[in-house]
Amino acid sequence: MSTENYLKGRGAQQNTTNKFSEFSYETRDDFLEFCRIEGEDSDNNKTQYIPIFPKTIVNKVTSPDVGMMYSMNPYQGCEHGCIYCYARNAHEFWGYSAGLDFERKILLKKDAPELLEKKLRSKNWKATTIVLSGNTDCYQPAEKKFKITRECLKVFLKYRHPVGIITKNALILRDLDILKELAKDNLIAVNVSVTSLSEETRRILEPRTTTITKRLETIRVLSDNNVPVNAMLAPIIPGINSHEIINLAKAVSENGASSFAFTVVRLNGAIGQIFTDWIKKTLPDRAEKVLHQIQECHGGTLNDSRFGIRSRGEGKIATQIHDLVRIARHTYFKDKSLPKLNMELFEQYRNGQMKLF
Could you tell me which residue ranges the Radical SAM core domain spans (predicted)? Predict the structure, then answer.
């Protein structure tokens, strides 16, 4: 890895221009020289937590590729700093960059539990799985301090409403007490992201996430407590983790995962620039090879927005990935499946307590 001007503990190494803004951000050489002379840091690399106050919290998901109908995000931006994260582009809607701002300016929705309860109590709402989170990780480091996700889980339990969780943080085990109660009525499914079995790969791809050992332990503890787990082996990045598919499937299966899913990486919007800058600084010896292989999966471009294809890829390399996935499923998940969640209890608890018969 080239360490010159490299921001440790971050994924993105720059702030890309926000396409919605008339202004652009540039760190000029004369400013850097001034900081050097004055003995000051040009960038303190600290995380900011910024409260915001949305009017609603549950979002309808219209994409046919995602596999969920509704999601909610207690946080916008994510300190995990995963370099490939598709959610980076969403930060531009808030007036920030998809690069470093996404990792360092974390927007907090402290009213999320109240907004969720209001939604569940609305007359027209019918029980449908709501996923925490469709965009950024609901158990990112901010959750340890603010506990917004935990309070939302209490609302789901109160109303016996089905909920899904997507995370790559072992912090979820802090809430095992609530998860176990939800699992008793088949109201919870957890998706744990495991991108690599190499700690070095994990560290550069996802700098502020929990270790691979801790993630596999998280799958095991959840499964041992009858909380069903789907492993997200995503994204698969040619030349970085594509050779690990079989071993990844074996590891998550042995630790109790009921199923696994995957996507082929795509670098849409500003992520293409952010990823390209990152890989040339982090893995310069194979940067061009990796970028070319990603392009081969998406018709010669890093960005692919076609529904049904964008997350699967096409071409020879994508076909090889799909073949490995089929072998992995046949070998390690042949008789496994994730149970469907219970939609029947919610009507009985809609008013906050079970109806008396």
Answer: 61-301
